[in-house]
Write a structure and sequence with these properties.
The complex is a heterodimer of chains A (242) and B (416). Chain A is α/β, with parallel strands linked by helices. Helices cover 36% and strands 28% of the residues of chain A. Chain A has one domain: P-loop containing nucleotide triphosphate hydrolases (Rossmann fold), CATH 3.40.50.300. In chain A, the strands form two sheets. Chain A has a six-stranded mixed β-sheet, sandwiched between helices. Chain A has a four-stranded antiparallel β-sheet with strand order 2-1-4-5, with helices on one face. Chain B folds into two domains: 181 residues, no CATH class; 131 residues, no CATH class. Bound molecules: adenosine-5'-triphosphate (ATP) and magnesium ion.
């Protein structure tokens, strides 16, 4: 049996816009993700994909429900602990790249290691290595505004890999890129998945890209309405539906 | 979190906004600069006052009889005067605190004639210790001796300007006879010494251009030539030179009390005794008040500067909300964000402080050079100023930094 790295039970997220107006965005999500899986989440705009991802990424806490990340009950973890989990176990890739504008590509990639307390020389060494992995070595001393969108996203992926996290969470990583560059970025995810066995959760609007992943979850109005294996993965049938 | 990394980060941020950073620092710069300038000037002033005091006799106590009441006409009586016997007794009592006592009496101005040379001079009758007490710098010959005093001799000490006029720079004037006419006398004197006039190049002690030529004759001679003065058998005023390790201000008080006892309560006169040191310390006391005033202004400027830093840090936190969100998503703890912004505030203030110290020191050096007493800025205020500016950074940086640290990561990330 593979390691269940994510286990969500009855996750509810509500926003309170003034006392009577409680706005429930996620209505009791149950989700299991196994170590080494490549999962995609699809759904209409406003269906709660990003909200779910923020909870998965320990950026946000659910209003109700239980979330176990690598068997650790997250409701018992304090804020500093969440920071540490984000630092060590999770790598974020955002649609808008979210690189620090004043820092070079190398510094951006090294940043999570800085917060992880890794010594300076080791940081630079590993950051250079990661930039090489995404074929961005030539641009390591460029600032984000000197890079194209695809290049920025490659730097962002290298940064997500900095502390060798177990899980990579990517929220529409190809959303701001053309098909060709989107393809390049997708290929990097496939490589990380196949060569390094990373657990990857990809949010996308692109159905074709979603079908490339092992399993797709569909959200509608804050509930999971579909959860199935894709294409040839279906045949393997090694994952039970939740 | 990594201190060095934070400092580098802060410097990068400042480099991106040079003008804004400079304007923010202005209050700190002005505050620190004025503190530095005033403390440099203060130490220059104290130094130059001390130096000048040493030159003109800082240990001197000037004792004089003065009317108790200036409104009523009071004339000095024979019995009011301080006699030689009283003085000798006083000197024996306080032998270890008195180095010398000198007397002098002005004889007014007169005209010196020697051959075809005529010069206006002023004549002072002086006792032998006058030279020591008033730092008369003899370059040739000798000063008045006890024998000149006892013999009421017609001897005179002239200054170098007069010597140059009479015989030239290299000429020998000792033993030369010169004639001096005053209002009531015309006497011939033998030159026994030449002194160099003291130059006080301290603007604080500037008393006008003194082009007077002063000549000294024995005080006994002066008195015998001027028989109508009442003070034939005593002294109306004299100067005490205290020993180096005597507190001259305290000794002035002692002296005053000593001689007031001898005066008798019926006298219209009282004793005044003032030490130069006390006068000087009064002057430095005024300076202390002045620097306190400037410090208050500097303090206000630092306060305003600190608020400016707080303001700019708040702006910076808002501008960088997204960056803060990114950092938090990447695993920065609240404490790491807090220290990043506090260190940035400290760096702004410290740079302001360093510029202020530089500027203030330059002003201080310039000012003290104008005072003819170039002084290097004192070290301790410099360190205090720098520490204080860092403290301002911590104090005014804390609120914005804390605000940044407490931002919700998702709200921050979503901020546009
Ligand atoms: N802070 C908030 N307060 C109130 N409502 C919020 C807040 N954040 C998100 N929402 C609401 O939650 C819902 C889900 O938002 P979410 O960002 O998760 O959607 P999404 O599926 O990621 O959409 P998209 O594909 O457009 O990114 C939306 O209706 C949004 O208005
Ligand atoms: Mg979204």
């Amino acid at each position: 049996m593979r390691n269940k790295i994510i286990e969500m039970r009855g996750i509810v997220k509500s926003y309170y816009l003034g006392t009577p107006n409680e706005l429930e965005i996620l209505h009791g999500i149950d989700l299991d993700v196994y170590e080494g899986e490549f999962l995609s989440i699809v759904g209409a705009s406003g269906s709660g994909k990003s909200t779910l991802m923020n909870i998965l990424g320990a950026l946000d806490r659910p209003t109700k429900g239980h979330y176990y990340l690598d068997h650790l009950p997250m409701e018992n973890v304090r804020d500093d602990g969440l920071s540490q989990i984000r630092n060590k176990k999770i790598g974020f890739v955002f649609q808008t790249f979210n690189l620090i504008p004043r820092s070079t590509a190398l510094k951006n990639v090294a940043l999570p290691m800085l917060y992880g307390g890794i010594p300076r020389s080791e940081r630079s060494r590993r950051a250079a290595e990661l930039l090489q992995l995404v074929e961005m070595s030539g641009r390591s001393h460029h600032r984000p505004n000197e890079l194209s969108g695809g290049q920025k996203q490659r730097v962002a992926i290298a940064r997500a890999m900095a502390n060798d996290p177990a899980i990579i969470l990517a929220d529409e990583p190809t959303g701001a890129l053309d098909t060709h560059t989107g393809r390049l970025v997708m290929d990097i995810f496939h490589r990380l998945h196949q060569e390094q066995g990373k657990t990857i959760i990809l949010i996308t609007h692109n159905v074709e890209l979603a079908e490339e992943t092992e399993r797709t979850i569909r959200l509608r109005d804050g509930s999971i309405v579909d959860n199935r294996m894709n294409g040839h993965y279906q045949l393997e049938g090694c994952y039970e539906s939740v | 979190m990594n201190l060095f990394e934070n400092i580098r980060l802060a410097l990068e941020g400042l480099r991106a906004n040079k003008m804004r950073a400079l304007l923010t620092m202005l209050g700190i710069i002005i505050g620190i600069a004025s503190v530095m300038a005033i403390s440099t000037l203060g130490s220059a002033m104290t130094g130059s006052v001390t130096k000048t005091m040493d030159k003109i006799g800082g240990k001197n106590i000037m004792v004089s009889l003065s009317p108790k009441n200036y409104d009523t006409q009071s004339t000095l009586q024979e019995e009011d005067l301080i006699t030689q016997e009283e003085l000798d007794a006083f000197r024996n009592t306080y032998a270890d605190q008195i180095k010398a006592i000198s007397f002098s009496t002005g004889m007014g101005s007169g005209q010196l004639n020697s051959g075809f040379i005529h010069k206006d001079v002023s004549i002072t009758g002086a006792s032998p210790d006058y030279g020591l007490v008033n730092n008369v710098n003899l370059v040739q010959g000798r000063f008045i001796s006890d024998r000149d005093m006892d013999g009421t001799r017609n001897v005179i000490i002239i200054d170098t300007t007069l010597r140059n006029n009479l015989v030239g720079v290299d000429g020998d004037v000792i033993g030369k006879e010169i004639q001096v006419d005053t209002k009531s006398t015309n006497e011939t004197y033998t030159v026994i010494g030449v002194y160099e006039k003291m130059v006080i190049d301290n603007p604080l002690f500037y008393m006008g251009d003194d082009t007077r030529i002063e000549c000294f004759i024995p005080i006994t001679t002066a008195k015998s030539l001027n028989p109508d003065t009442t003070n034939q058998n005593g002294y109306e005023n004299f100067t005490i030179m205290a020993t180096t390790n005597t507190d001259s201000a305290a000794f002035a008080q002692t002296t005053k009390e000593y001689f007031i006892k001898g005066l008798g309560s019926l006298s219209d006169f009282t004793i005044q005794a003032e030490s130069l040191e006390a006068i000087a310390s009064e002057a430095t006391g005024m300076l202390a008040t002045l620097s306190l005033g400037i410090s208050v202004i500097a303090g206000i400027s630092l306060l305003v500067g600190g608020i400016g830093v707080m303001n700019i840090m708040l702006v910076s936190v808002t501008e960088r909300t997204k960056e803060i969100g990114i950092r938090k998503a990447l695993g920065a703890r609240n404490s790491a964000i807090r220290s990043q912004f506090i260190i940035e505030a400290i760096i702004i203030c410290l740079i302001g402080g360093i510029i202020g110290v530089g500027l203030g020191s330059a002003l201080g050096i310039m000012g003290s050079t104008l005072m003819k007493f170039p002084t290097s800025p004192p070290f301790l205020p410099m360190i205090i100023a720098l520490c204080f500016s860092m403290a301002i950074g911590v104090f005014f940086g804390f609120y914005p930094a804390n605000k940044a640290a407490k931002l919700d990561p998702i709200d921050a990330l979503r901020y546009e």
